[in-house]
Amino acid sequence: MPSLMGQLTKFQGLATQSFRVAGLIIGTCLACGAMAQAKAFDISYEPIWPKLGPGQFAVPVKLNLKCNTADTMGMVVVRGLGSAVSYPIELPRGTTKSITVYVEGTQWSTPTAELQTPMGNQSKPIELQGPSGDANLFVGVISSTPGLLASLTATKTNGAAVLETGVKPESAPDRSVGYRPLKTVVLAEGAERLSDGAVWAIQRYVLAGGTLLVTGGASAPWLRDSRWAPVLPMAPGQVREVSVQGKIGSEELTAPLRLTVSGGVPTPGASVSQSSEGVPLIVSKSIGLGKVVVWTFDPFVAPLQTHQARNAMIRTLVKGSADGSAILDRYRQNDDPNRTMYAGNSQNPFKVTMPPTGLIVAILCLFLVFAIPVNFVVLNKLNKRELAWVTIPLASLVFSGLIFASARNLYSVGEARRTNGLLLTHEGTGQATFVGRQELFLPKAGLYDMGYQSVESASNNKGYEGGFSGEGLFSGQPEFIDVGQVVAPRIEANNLTFRDTELVQAVPFQGKLVLRPTMTSRNGSVIVTGRITNDTPYFLYECHLSQNGLSGDVQDLRPGQSATIRVVLTPSSASRKTSVPNNGVLYWSSGIEGVSIGTPLGNESKAWSNLSLLYSWNLGVQQ
Questions:
Q1: How far apart are CA 270 and CA 623, in angstroms?
Q2: How many CB atoms lie within 10 A of CB 456?
Q3: How far apart are CA 183 and CA 533, in angstroms?
Q4: Where do the H-state alpha helices sit in 449-587?
Q5: If DSSP codes are grouped into helix, strand and coil, which group holds residue 389?
Q6: CB within 8 A of 467, min separation 6: which ones?
Q7: Could you tell me how far CA 420 lies from the centroid of its own chain?
Q8: Which of 477, 470, 409 shows the shortest CA–CA distance to 443?
């Protein structure tokens, strides 16, 4: 017996040791596999605008992905603040690919980028370390030389720091949303190398309320770039040297400055705020809700490079920069003060509401009372209890019909959409941008292609989405795919599903509104006379002219229609005035039909939507 026990003990020891060795081998293999997996890809990132932290707008980030394994392809899924967008990518072995992604985050939530491939998945948190763009004023300098305005750091304007960030021209975003976190954008040395996409994006940023500062000096080829001509407040001229005395901008000078300036002639609508020896120094022009400012001198070379007036001028400019966000928010929330919404009708799915909770509970209680006590008592008295197999299903159908009676119109309406927001364009720019939201009703379950074109950004309003079943739409893989523009080819919907999507879209605006008005002032009002032609394919209705808080009604215009107008702009319509900037620009605001916004799915009616056009003209040169 002792010999047998000894052998058992010895066997147990060997078995334990074998298990330990096997476990060590397996653990080592798993660890090696994990290490191999971790080394399959290298993921790094760098913000396009350094120092810029999270805020209310998405921040552009350059994502770098290196493939250390076999050739592969996959998706980069960027998630943040309830949104998720996929970026398709191909990764040959040994190569590094860089893509620009747009991330949304807050101080309390960190967005992530997840690379999904057949070789496995790998995630990387994207931590934006800079201060928030909501509490600070950021100036974005586009230049080959970084840090041109680094000395602005910690400067305060009304409690908010004025902070500099910069990007090289070849890395500048080609979407207007890539500039939205900035209060002001500056074109400096090297800006002539901006891509066409970046130039058009900056112009759309200005249309939506941004400020662009264009610098001049001895060499400023961007002032002669035909791409900028539609928005510049001056046509280029000869380079000259002038002496500036007294002040530059609003800053007092202790001694005269000798500056090399880009001469030129102000264009219609420009305002010359300072000149010297007959040469403009500071010229500006309003474009849409924003403005373009030209300093004909170079603030980044001597003598202004180290002069205290330079930063003070930048702060003054930033403080006075346009802010179109409040106006855009009003239109996006279906609150155009110049428009009278048509009444809804029975075919408007966005006016349908579910019965109150109390009514539904009452119907359910009645069903329970009928299905159990009443039903069985009656059938028992009639000695027909076997009929319960028939009466209970019939009762279920009847009471279900009562509950869903309020939705009966939705089944007959078909696909429908409602667009709320503002389409902005300015005479001669050839650019138009839409900022707003689009609601979509899908009566039938299935997969849908939204058919987006030139959409710069799209994000779901999660609080609104879902059908009457209460199920959200977003599950599994992201719905939006970024292929240089945002598309949504596979949207999954349940029966009776509503969607609400925030959109920023570059829109090809066809034609123009032709108006050469005569304007006279009388007793606090402005009288506008002239002939206007709607040289567009769009129907314009509920039309108004506005300037500096004054507003007046104009007749509806069909495509190609001309009309002689005499409009009195008065403050008496303040309760419904457009709240356009006080910048001397003449604005046309109206409803618009016939323009393609967002998805083409569904039927849209002006009775449901509040899609508004804001078209602006510059008038004469202001000295």
A1: 8
A2: 25
A3: 35
A4: none
A5: helix
A6: 493, 494, 495, 496, 497, 498
A7: 14
A8: 409
**β-strand pairing of 486-487 with 480-482:** antiparallel
Kindly state the tokens that stand for 177. Answer: 């949303």
The DSSP bridge partners found for residue 437 are: 420, 502
CB atoms within 10 A of CB 333: 13
Instruction: Extract the tokens encoding 289.
Output: 């809700």
Strands 518-522 and 525-535, by their bridges, are antiparallel
> Exposed, middle or buried by CB within 10 Å (0-12, 13-18, 19+), for 373?
exposed
In 3D, which of 240, 231, 191, 238 has the Cα closest to residue 211?
A: 231
Q: Decide: 590 and 614 in contact? Cβ < 8 Å.
A: no
> How far is the CA of 581 from the CAs of 209, 455, 514, 577, in angstroms?
10, 27, 21, 11
pTM of the model: 0.83
What burial class does residue 402 get, using C-beta atoms within 10 Å of its C-beta: 0-12 exposed, 13-18 middle, 19+ buried?
Answer: middle
How is 392-449 classified by DSSP, letter by letter? HHHHHHHHHHHHTGGGHHHHHH-SEEEEEEEEEEETTT--EEEEEEEEEEE-S-EEE-
- Residue 433 above 90 pLDDT? yes
Distance spanning both ends of the chain, measured CA to CA: 116
Measured distance CA(283)–CA(265) in Å, rounded: 10
Minimum mean pLDDT range among 52-56, 143-147, 197-201, 501-505: 52-56
Strands 480-482, 83-91: pairing is parallel
Structure tokens at 76: 């980069």
User: C-alpha dihedral over 578, 583, 588, 591, to 10 degrees?
Assistant: -40
DSSP run (H or E) holding 157: strand 155-157
316-319, long-range: CB < 8 A, 24+ apart: 316/249, 316/250, 316/251, 317/184, 317/211, 317/213, 317/293, 318/137, 318/139, 318/157, 318/162, 318/183, 318/184, 318/211, 319/137, 319/157, 319/158
- Give pLDDT tens digits for 533-548: 999 999 999 999 998 8
CA angle 131, 133, 138 (to 5 degrees): 95
DSSP 603: B
Q: What is the mean pLDDT of residues 471-500?
A: 77
**And the tokens for 73?**
């392809």
CA dist., res. 614 & res. 546, Å (int) = 10
Condensed to tens digits (0 to 9), the pLDDT of residues 75-95 reads 999 988 767 899 999 999 999
SS3 letters for 87-129? Answer: EEEEECCCCEEEEEEEECCCCCCCCEEEEEECCEEEEEECCCC
- Residue pair 444/424 in contact (Cβ under 8 Å)? The answer is no
